[in-house]
Amino acid sequence: MLTITHDMSRGIAIGDYTLRIYQLMFLLSFILGFQIVKSIFKREGADEKWMDPLLTYTVVATVIGARLGHVFFYQPEYYLNHPLEILMVWKGGLASHGAAIAIIVAMYLFSKKVSKTPLLWILDRVVIVVALAAAFIRIGNYTNSEIYGQVENSPMETVFLYPAQEYFTSYYGSFFYDVSFEETERTFEQNNIVYPIYTATFTTKQNANTERIAQEIDVNILRRLSSLDSEEQNVLPLPGAKAEIISPTEIRVELMGVPRYPTQLFEAGGYLFIFIILIFLYLKTIKKFELGFLFGTFLTLLFGFRFFIEFYKANQVGFEEDLTLNMGQYLSIPLVLVGLYFMVSSAKRPYQYSKKVGNK
């Protein structure tokens, strides 16, 4: 069985600055989306002066909506006690459902103040690139080792080691400053899961008491790994394994890598396919357009797929353990229903294509 070992860094070092790959994916999604919408506007004779304000409305709505979506849907109690952290977007915590709602509101304002076109006309076009952006963002989530799947053996099982490296160096930085992993050819089966075995090498500081650190690893650190919440477990102690001093600055111990579904890649592939479907439908129906059909198709396909894929994802917050469905699924249901409504009712809203948008 193929195991993907994911231990890539979350960013690219450029001098003293680290460019997060997630940030790069976000930027690429807006650049490509801008060019695609520009091409659509040119095809339909829309005013190119709309492009800059449209980009501004979309970027602001995406960031604010995604952040507030996470705050209110996933961790309201925490942010109620730490309100200033709402502004700390760089710490993570964005929700696509919040972004979807905010983009709809932003497009309403854009249609009223800038384009003077029906709201559904602009939504039918913007959702095409939103689907593409969602694919890029999920690739960014994969590189960030976040929003991953449940523990399971599968043909694409992935062990996300970077969070484990961060855990060790962040919480036990006084003992060692670096941890590297090397996959072995051995496995260990426990509770019907086959875990790949990795050799972890901890690099300590010069003149450190390696014997005391090795004892700390055996007595406390490995035990604490097992006590982490299930969604935070990326490596586990191998039963019977003991820390071994191999040099004055290196300690080695065998750990089990936790295999998970790479659901970020599943979602990225699904959203890319939805983007292709929307492009095809747009080109096929442009001469006889029914307002709201593409918007409804987007909501139905994207959040319908999101509902399905959530069955394979690890819970993002603790309270989801007690829910029949997780929060992402509960939030997807109304959006799918709204999408179905707009698809079915779009026949009542014909919009005749012309070389100048706004002329029915």
Describe the structure in your own words.
There is one protein chain. This protein has about 350 residues and is an alpha+beta fold. It has 2 domains: about 5-150 and about 265-350, no CATH class; about 160-255. Helices cover about 50% and strands about 15% of the residues. It has 10 helices and 11 strands. The protein has helices at about 20-45, 50-75, 75-80, 95-115, 120-145, 160-170, 210-225, 265-285, 295-310, 325-345; strands spanning about 5, 10-15, 15-20, 160, 175-190, 195-205, 235, 245, 250-255, 290, 350. The strands form 4 sheets. Strands 5, 6, 7, 8 and 9 form a 5-stranded antiparallel β-sheet that branches. Strand 2 (about 10-15) and strand 3 form a beta hairpin. Helix 4 (about 95-115) packs antiparallel against helix 5 (about 120-145) and helix 5 packs antiparallel against helix 8. The longest helix is centred in the middle third of the chain and has 25 residues, at about 120-145. The chain is elongated and about 80 Å long.
In terms of topology, how is this protein built?
Blueprint: E1 4-6, E2 11-14, E3 17-20, H1 21-44, H2 51-73, H3 76-81, H4 96-115, H5 119-143, E4 158-160, H6 162-171, E5 176-190, E6 193-204, H7 210-227, E7 235-237, E8 244-247, E9 250-257, H8 263-285, E10 288-290, H9 293-309, H10 327-345, E11 350-352
Parallel strand pairs: 1-4
Antiparallel strand pairs: 2-3, 5-6, 6-9, 7-9, 8-9, 10-11
Helix pairs in contact: 1-5, 2-4, 4-5, 5-8, 5-9, 8-9, 9-10
